[in-house]
Amino acid sequence: MDRLAKKNEWFARAEKVIPGGMYGHQSVKYLTEDFPLYFAKAKGTYLWDVDGSQYIDYVCGYGTNLFGYGNEQIERAAALQLQNIDTATGPSAVMVELAEALTRQVSHADWAMFCKNGSDATSMAMVISRAYRGKRKVLVARGTYHGASPWNVPYTTGITKEDRAHVVYFEYNDIESLDAAVKSVDGDVAAIYATPLRHEVLFDQFFPSVEYAHACRRLADEQEALLVVDEVRTGLRLSRDCSWSDWGVHPDLSCWGKAIGGGYAIAAVLGSDKAREAATNIFVTGSYWLSAVPMAAAIETLRLVRETDYLEHTKRLADKLRAGIAEQAERHGFELKQTGPSVMPQMLFAGDDELVSRGRAWASEVVKSGAYLHPWHNMFFTASHTDEDIARTLEATEAAFGALKQKSVALNRLDILDTVQR
Predict the structure, then answer these.
(1) pTM for the whole thing?
(2) pLDDT (tens digit, 9 = 90+) per residue, 194-206?
């Protein structure tokens, strides 16, 4: 029986009415046929696909929940709000409560503005930065991910040079390169963008130096520009505050999304008083940006952030999984690189490229055993993961390493045979 029969039926229907059948992160161009595409149920750590298979999920909506799918407290807060008002002519007072909660939570923040996703937030921050002193240039580290708007999307099909006419690139974690980029625009710097760590797909993750973070702050001040820290992926996963604030580097603007809504669609720009007037003078809006239900969910999420040990719990389990997989990889003779923070793991095999990938083969075996690990994207832990989940996942990864080793031996034999025949 085909494990993914219903998935294939749905995809055949999708191809007729959706370009390519699937787009974005779940595009069939990037995932192997062994991965499910459509899901029927999600609860806690688990996903069930349309074929009824259960998975321990380590992608977690690409980071959109922090406490697991369908967390009871968050869902209760959202349901209570829905009984009264959600998307209407104007916002609910819950909008003010959420702004108050966020400014209490994040040390640099004096105010908050809301939108729907990370791309909205980073684009809003760009407009605020340009309004701050009337400057144009936005400095962005080459290859870093800040969303999927025309000015920052990683792929340029359908994008014009004019869309990026005022984006200036420098090398991440390279103070000299950043300084050269600043000098190249002769005082016309509106903003310096930074991710708390380098977390792009298909590449090893790494933290920059503390000196680099402080250089971003210093150069922004010297240029009367705004420092924008993009916390869309990292927010509340590495710290209960803005990530660089732990290093003594406080941004003027920070961009948040994914985890802050407890699985509901909301993003935010948080800012200091320095940028308040500029934020007041711009015009930004969206039909669903002021919906109250996601805001109520976000308030409850922030309460759980304050009152539980979620951060310590996720780090302990993430470290446990990382150590277990490292031991398995070494024992089976594979060089698997696990980089970045363990709560946002990136797992790539040394020597892989986009076309020939042991990582894809390994992740395909893991997902068939019921653990959803991604072959090239960084992943996310939630507070709903348990020690039992880790044990079951390590059983799946152990079996996958064994299967991958057998395939490698078989391929080597074919190569030897081919050489002999030649």
Answers:
(1) 0.94
(2) 999 999 999 999 9
